[in-house]
Design brief:
The chain is mainly alpha-helical and 556 residues long. It has 24 helices and no strands. The chain has one domain: MFS general substrate transporter like domains (Growth Hormone, Chain: A, Up-down Bundle). The protein has helices spanning 2-30, 36-70, 78-105, 108-111, 114-127, 137-166, 172-200, 202-207, 214-226, 229-239, 245-250, 255-268, 289-297, 299-321, 326-332, 344-377, 383-403, 405-408, 412-430, 433-439, 447-475, 485-503, 514-517, 547-553. Helix 5 (114-127) runs antiparallel to helix 9. The radius of gyration is 27 Å and the shape is globular. InterPro entries: MFS_dom, MFS_sugar_transport-like, MFS_trans_sf, Phos_permease, Sugar_transporter_CS. Residues 525-556 are annotated as: Disordered. Pfam families: Sugar_tr (PF00083).
Length: 556
């Protein structure tokens, strides 16, 4: 009887130690002061999003150049243009689902960097893609852009979750927004690089024969190829970033190693993996299909996943669909296609120059400022109010732009007003749901499903982008060139309205710990450990238990 009591007492002491050690480590992460390690995590993750946006937005001007080169100064067919522009979105959709799943089952650290390698390979593949009798340049580009898209897709759940799990509670929103805001700078950089390259090749573009636009061919390859430079720089730092303590504790179930990691990286920014001494395994809820169904089968959890997925889907329909208006906007502000110059070559140069400058104006006019309004307010005002405000304002803006389309564009002052409304729509997408739909899924789910759920949410958004790019690009010319555009804007207004209702399903995540947001009780989260391997229930030569040894192994 005494022997059994000693074993049970030792087991209880071990469980208490593991649970307390976990809570202490989590509290240390949640209440940590902002340090160089936090800044480094933001920079390393942000460089990936910078690269993603650069690669995504650079194709718009590159596609125009490709049309000039392979159509003797003409343009791509509708299918060719759509193919090279939508291929990365389809790849991103699958990458978000795949890497989201793998990051929860293999580990954040093991997957982080692999997606960047895929982006680098896909980007270089595009830059050197060739045309031959047996294969079209468009087919080769579509293949490489799909591969690149897989890597970009992997970046979404990995960067979001790693930043979220390393961040202190009170600054988590700003850290995640800082990472996501790198997209705006990537867009801006693609326009800057474009104008530099176009200007550098100005003489050749203006004087080479239409049948051999070698300089234009070199420029688009250079613009796309430069996109892999920041990715190469960031690769080493991604491969050497430590595993997040939450994953080590809650999925690998190694609480002792996680506690050591927290103590080490918060002070020195480094970590030491010690599999010999830190080999304890606590018993916590394990990820499985049955457990996934049980967890999200409860409405309190399922509604959050539904809310994040639909909000992102609705937002991306308008976010990518708004690009359908860019040519109208650029023409209105004097940066449209040039057609009245002396030679075809001069028109080509001026058109490319106008598009690059126009993209800089649009980025500065609404895209980048919106991110930083979110950055400054997300940890004080909250995620949910920003998302609700954004969807509400966007609903009103798209109603005005859609139902008043013909009347607004009928006068010169009306066209200027339309440009203003367009910039406001860009602004309130980024100071609104475009930022928060990235942040909330990285916070609102348990550690064992956080990356998977973020991947599902992000893939839902990318599905919306594909619908916008494929569906609306086909619909826009119903009844004549751009005749259906006003109705598309009205459709956007409807989806923004649905985003208001899906946002109501979401919790406010500001200032709360990730464990609190998981909606799982933390009181008995660490259950009875499987301690047989550590000595409990084993006997020494004289018949006594090895509980003392095991108890020492679990001391804090």
């Amino acid at each position: 009887m005494s022997h059994q009591f000693d074993v049970e007492k030792s087991r209880a002491d071990a469980v208490v130690s593991a649970g307390e050690r976990r809570r202490a480590a989590l509290a240390e992460v949640d209440e940590a002061k902002f340090s160089w390690f936090h800044a480094k995590a933001c920079i390393v993750a942000g460089v990936g999003f910078f690269t993603d946006a650069y690669d995504i937005f650079s194709i718009s001007i590159a596609a125009t150049m490709i049309g000039y080169v392979y159509h003797a100064g003409g343009a791509n067919t509708a299918n060719q243009d759509l193919g090279i522009k939508v291929a990365h979105s389809i790849g991103t959709f699958f990458g978000q689902l795949l890497f989201g799943f793998l990051a929860d089952h293999v580990g954040r650290k093991r997957m982080y960097g692999i997606e960047l390698m895929i982006i680098i390979v896909g980007t270089l593949g595009q830059a050197v893609a060739g045309h031959a009798a047996g294969v079209s340049i468009y087919g080769v580009l579509i293949m490489w852009r799909f591969i690149m898209g897989m890597g970009i897709g992997g970046d979404y759940p990995l960067s979001a979750v790693i930043t979220s799990e390393f961040a202190a509670r009170r600054i988590r929103g700003r850290m995640m927004t800082a990472v996501f805001a790198s997209q705006g700078w990537g867009n801006f950089a693609s326009a800057i690089v474009s104008i530099v390259c176009i200007t550098a090749f100005k003489h050749q573009i203006q004087h080479q024969p239409i049948a051999n636009l070698k300089a234009v061919d070199q420029v688009w390859r250079l613009i796309i190829g430069i996109g892999c430079v920041p990715a190469v720089v960031a690769l080493y730092f991604r491969l050497t970033i430590p595993e997040t303590p939450r994953y080590t504790m809650d999925v690998e179930r190694n609480i002792k190693q996680a506690s050591q990691d927290v103590d080490t990286y918060l002070t020195s920014g480094t970590y030491v993996n010690d599999p010999i001494n830190n080999n304890e395994r606590a018993e916590l809820p394990k990820a499985s299909w049955a457990d996934f169904g049980r967890h999200f089968g409860q409405w309190k959890n399922g509604k959050v996943l539904l809310g994040t997925a639909w909000s992102w889907f609705a937002l991306d329909i308008a976010f990518y669909g708004l690009g359908l208006n860019s040519s109208t906007i650029l023409t209105t502000i004097g940066f449209g296609s040039a057609t009245n110059l002396a030679t075809k070559q001069l028109n080509i140069y001026q058109t490319l120059h106008n598009v690059a400058v126009g993209n800089i104006i649009l980025a500065v006019g609404g895209l980048i400022p919106g991110y930083y309004f979110s950055f400054f307010l997300i940890d004080s005002w909250g995620r949910k109010p920003i998302q609700l405000m954004g969807f509400s304002v966007l609903t009103v803006l798209f109603v005005i732009m859609g139902f008043g389309y013909d009347k607004i564009l009928s006068t010169g002052s009306g066209k200027k007003a339309f440009v203003f409304l367009y910039c406001m729509a860009n602004f309130f997408q980024n100071f609104g749901p475009n930022t928060t739909t990235f942040v909330i899924p990285g916070e609102a789910f348990p550690t064992r499903y956080r990356s998977t759920a973020h991947g599902i949410s992000a893939a839902s958004g990318k599905l919306g982008a594909i619908v916008a790019q494929v569906g609306f690009s086909r619909m826009i010319n119903i009844g004549g060139k751009n005749k259906f555009l006003k109705h598309i804007l009205e459709i956007f207004a409807f989806f923004m309205l649905t985003g208001i209702f899906s946002t109501l399903l979401l919790p406010e995540t500001k200032g709360r710990t990730l464990e609190d947001l998981s909606q799982e009780s933390q009181d008995h989260f660490v259950k009875d450990s499987d301690l047989n391997n550590n000595g409990i229930n084993k006997t020494s030569g004289n018949g006594s238990t090895a509980s003392e040894e095991d108890t020492r192994a679990h001391e804090i």
